[in-house]
Amino acid sequence: MALKDYLEIDFFLLFAAVVLTVFGVLFIYSSGISGISSAGPLASSEYMRQIIWGISGFLIALVLVLVDYRRIRDLSLWFYLGTLVLLFYTCVFGRVVNGARAWIGIGAFGIQPSEFAKITTIIFLARHLADSGRGADSFMRFVISCFIVFLPMGLILIQPDFGTSLVFIPILLVMTFAAGVALRYVLFLLATIALTGGLMVLPLWQSLILKNQSLDLTFLSNSKFIGFAILALGAIGIIAVFGFVKYRKRYFFWIVYSAAVVVLSLGASFMSHKVLKDYQIMRLIVFLDPEVDPQGAGWNIIQSVTAIGSGGLAGKGYLQGTQSHYRFLPQQSTDFIFSIFTEEWGFLGGLLVFALFLVIILRLMRIVRTSADPFGAYICAGLAGMFIFHFFINVGMTMGIMPITGIPLLFMSYGGSSIISAMVGIGLALSIHVRRFLH
After folding, report:
1. Cβ pair 407, 164 in contact under 8 A
2. Transmembrane stretches, by residue range (predicted)?
């Protein structure tokens, strides 16, 4: 390609990512200060590592612009299989950090394979959706897409890293929708996930929040009840399938559809109690009412909301935050970096972060609309789903309107794997943008 083509880089997209990364470094530095004084001693040198990772990610993004993204199409299967092997290795031999065996490495150097698995899964799923084409059978396209996504998601859930595993769901939903898969299949997965979450937390919600002894929901986690319900609904589904085949009535289809949603939700909610740790399920409870466990699982939310509220309109000023400097906020440089940001830069600063993420999402969607190559368009759709989910869940978590799931705020939260994988995504999007008119 000619030099003038590379000058068509989407500078808005790159600028937004770089500014967010700079904000991350600034407030990781702030989170490392002890005491109220901005000249207080540094309790952490995390910001130095974040600078190195940020620069490395930026350079990787620029290199990816020079690489024709279509070359990775044939390699996408090997990238995907490679990350599956890494995820399996991590499950067995990985390092335990914050209760999850999610890291591999030597000494102080380590990577989190699940962060890179999101990118390789997006690329391989985009290849499948592009190869199968819109004219193919929607059901089989959707089933194979689910298989591609659920394999890495399941390995990450085993670690167990509940938050990162959830990111694969919006990736799947957005990409299959963009690829023209029938909406009923996308809604089927969405309904199943929503019902699974409800069934998973209802017994604890009843016992810890309602404290209503006359209302007993513990049967929802009883193996005998789950088994009987699945068998009964399975029998109803089989009868409905027979009725649909014989009489071709639409209501038989919707009976099968509804029964399948309930059966899968019951099974998934039951299995979640076997896989997830108690503290992870408790995180889903305390966002409904943090006062259920104010000194334990609810502490993070209470302190985070306090920090954000104390920032007011314009904030307390850079390096003047109290919640972070006095160490009231746990994981303040990772999960709760937005709390520190808004405490020191206030509501206006929060709006700036919202605006920068909005720029990223809108530019990605523009590439989806203008790209002549479905493979490239689907990659950008998956990246948009990933960035949207990370942003809304993390920011919602800090504001107490989403459960704490351990999902970082991309570009800003401390972590090498997180920022480099996000920059790889930006680099891929920039490469697709430069070649958007090529097929």
Report:
1. yes
2. 12-31, 51-70, 77-97, 103-126, 138-158, 164-182, 187-205, 225-245, 252-272, 345-365, 377-397, 409-432
Question: What's the pLDDT band for 157 if we cut at 50, 70, 90?
Answer: confident
Q: How far is CA 69 from the centre of its chain?
A: 23
Place 77 in a pLDDT band, splitting at 50, 70 and 90.
very high
End-to-end CA distance of the chain: 14
pLDDT of 218 higher than 90: no
C-beta of residue 311 within 8 angstroms of C-beta of residue 344: yes
Residue of 294, 228, 211, 295 lying closest to 263 (CA atoms): 228
Question: Is residue 342 a contact partner of residue 313, using CB atoms and an 8 Å limit?
Answer: no
DSSP state of 221: G
* pLDDT above 70: percentage of residues in the chain: 82
Buried b (16+ CB within 10 A) or exposed e, 113-137: bbbbbbbbbbbbbbbbbbebeeeee
Q: Which token pair is 303? A: 């302190």
Edge-to-edge strands, sheet with 100-106: 95-97, 100-106, 109-111
**pLDDT tens-digit readout, 170-199:** 999 999 999 988 888 888 888 888 888 777
Which secondary structure element, helix H or strand E, spans residue 34, and what is its range?
none
183-205 and 278-286 are packed helices; what angle lies between their axes, rounded to 10 degrees? 100
Tokens of 62: 């620029």
Whether the per-residue pLDDT at 270 is higher than 90: the answer is no
Q: Residue written as tokens 């891929």?
A: 428
Look up the pTM and report it: 0.88
Q: What are phi and psi of 105, to 5 degrees?
A: 165, -175
Residue 426 CA to residue 353 CA, distance in Å, equals: 17
Under DSSP, the state recorded for 316 is: S
Helix axes 183-205, 162-178, angle to 10 degrees: 160
Q: What residue has token string 């104010």?
A: 294
Phi and psi at residue 41, to the nearest 5°: -65, 145
Query: What is d(CA 18, CA 15) in angstroms, rounded to the nearest whole number?
Result: 5
What gap in Å lies between CA 89 and CA 155, rounded to an integer? 10
Q: Tell me: pLDDT of 348 over 90.
A: yes
| 131 Cβ contact partners less than 8 Å away, ≥ 6 residues apart | none
